[in-house]
Amino acid sequence: MPTIVKSIFSSKAYQSFLEAEPQDHQSSGTADVGKGNGIAASGEEDAQTMSPTQDNYYQPTNNASSTRFAAKCHPDADAICAELDAFLAQNWPWANDRAREEFLKTDCNRWACWALPLARSDRILDTVKVNTLLFLLDDVAEGMSLENGKAFYKRLIPIAQGKVQPDRTDPYEWITYDVWASMRAVDEALTEAVLQGALLCVRALVHDARNRCTGMRALLLQRYKEGGVGCVSTFV
To answer: What confidence tens digit (pLDDT) does each residue in 141-178 have?
Structure first.
């Protein structure tokens, strides 16, 4: 956990917030409180002394509340996920069988299908490929030092840009090249926009600034870049 976050959770102000008693919004000893949500109080009950287990306090639950919005996934999701899972299981240079199985269990390919349910059928496959590739490369770089991570991406970036031909014996290189080339063949201009967002993300992941976030503002700006906001917004 970043130092700034630790300092927030350990601060006196935060501890005081946790230990503070709920504020009583009752206007009189006999008035009903919160009729709209079924919360009532009488003169014989003091809200400040009520137990946190009583019904007028929020209780965590795993049951999602009802919503007017319905979840929607791309209609081609099953076929796309099956195709990419089979491809990656066979071609990605997994550290071991367990790493491969753990990644496939995450159903990472389906994320873009949920995020972009209305995407054109002729473009959703390339979109999912790019998203999954970025997740996979991030996992690889995460196990490296910043310097090694920089060298790793420095090698792959010109390949993704189509400026350098890949080494066909290196899965990192040829998969990166083929994924971006496939998208570029559909729409070169939009692919370049997506690539710029992706490059902002991967460069941030191995930037020295990761170790220099001394305030919440710096931390949030860094996470904004690392999270691939620019890339995802271009997809949309």
So the answer is: 888 888 898 899 899 999 999 999 999 999 999 999 99
How many residues in total does the chain contain? 236
- Sort residue 119 into left (φ over 0), alpha (ψ -120 to 50) or beta: beta
CA–CA gap between residue 132 and residue 91 (Å, rounded): 14
**Separation between Cα atoms, residue 205 and residue 150, nearest integer Å:** 9
Cα 202 from Cα 225, distance rounded (Å)? 9
Whether the CB-CB separation of 153 and 141 falls below 8 Å is answered with yes
Distances in Å between the Cα of 87 and the Cα atoms of 18, 66, 211, 213, 223 are 49, 38, 36, 38, 31
In the predicted structure, residue 27 carries a pLDDT above the cut 60: no
Better-scored residue on pLDDT, 62 or 131: 131
Beta strands in the chain, from DSSP E residues, in sequence order: none
What b/e readout covers 86-115, taking b as 16+ CB neighbours within 10 angstroms? eebeeebebeeeeebeebbeeebbbebbeb
- Is the CB of residue 132 less than 8 Å from the CB of residue 108? yes
* pTM summary value: 0.65
Q: CB neighbours of 56 closer than 8 A, spacing ≥ 6? A: 34, 39, 47, 50
Least Cα distance to 127 among 179, 197, 79, 204 occurs for 179
